[in-house]
Amino acid sequence: ICAIAHVTAVKMPAFHRHEEEKFFVTAQGREPVPSIYDPATRELSVVVPSYNEEDRLPLMMDEALGYLEKRQKKDPSFTYEVIVVDDGSKDQTKEIYATSCNWLMTNNDLEDAGFYELFQLQGVFSSRGEKILMADADGATKFPDIEKVEEGLKNLHPWPNGMAISCGSRAHLEKDSIAKRSYFRTLLMYGFHFLVWFLCVKEIRDTQCGFKLLTRKAAEETFTALHIERWAFDVELLYIAQRLKIPIAEVAVNWTEIEGSKLVPFWSWLQMGRDLLFIRLRYMTGAWKLETRKYN
What we know:
- By secondary structure, this protein is an alpha/beta fold.
- It has helices at 2-7, 57-74, 91-97, 115-125, 146-154, 174-180, 183-200, 216-223, 233-243, 265-284; strands spanning 23-26, 29-32, 42-50, 80-86, 102-106, 129-135, 165-169, 211-215, 248-252.
- A 7-stranded mixed β-sheet has the order 5-4-3-6-8-7-9, sandwiched between helices.
- α3 links the parallel β4 (80-86) and β5 (102-106).
- Keywords: Endoplasmic reticulum, Glycosyltransferase, Membrane, Signal-anchor, Transferase, Transmembrane, Transmembrane helix.
């Protein structure tokens, strides 16, 4: 298995921008896409990957923008941006979300099943915020809970080399969720949690909650070293963070299951189990290293 993992390892995913991805859309027109390597010009960037989310995204955006606008009114010095990374095939998305402080990007690399992770990467690499929040388009986590993950980040001070991560967590809801699940899905869930703990990440109980807040430097160091493009993407992110000794907080957040999930329980978790094993073996055998890349 070690030999297979080593021989089949891809050193780094190939990332490139299509010509139309070098600009983002706002109410004023098109502007060049910024880079995470530039100095921060916003306090917060919210990255929302969106693929076939036209039914769920509007509710999430209404809640997020409503909260952020109220916060800015209370504190005019607070600056933010919301980055929706979309497949660019729906004009409706452009009409709704291309506003002066919230902008739309497109990603055309949909031939790989890891589109969600590619969208997340593109959004993070183009962020202007001092802090970067990864948020799912389904709105399963209540957006005002950003204050909880911000508090988690604050409690990690002092940040070594400006790096820290605060993860939203649903672990406190596990008992209630078990009561609603079948025995088979509960068994899969416990099996996945055990593999995450045994192979990769020992200190975080819920690695998969799509509500993570990173400092700009932590996002640059971890996202530019990622290899996984599928569901185990979050696990590798935290595995890299632990290898780099980046402090990580886990904070309980409100969470509601939203219909329309693209996760197929058995096959997706089987794939994640394989990816977890390969993450450990490929780093252990030196097929993957903690190396960063430039994303232009």
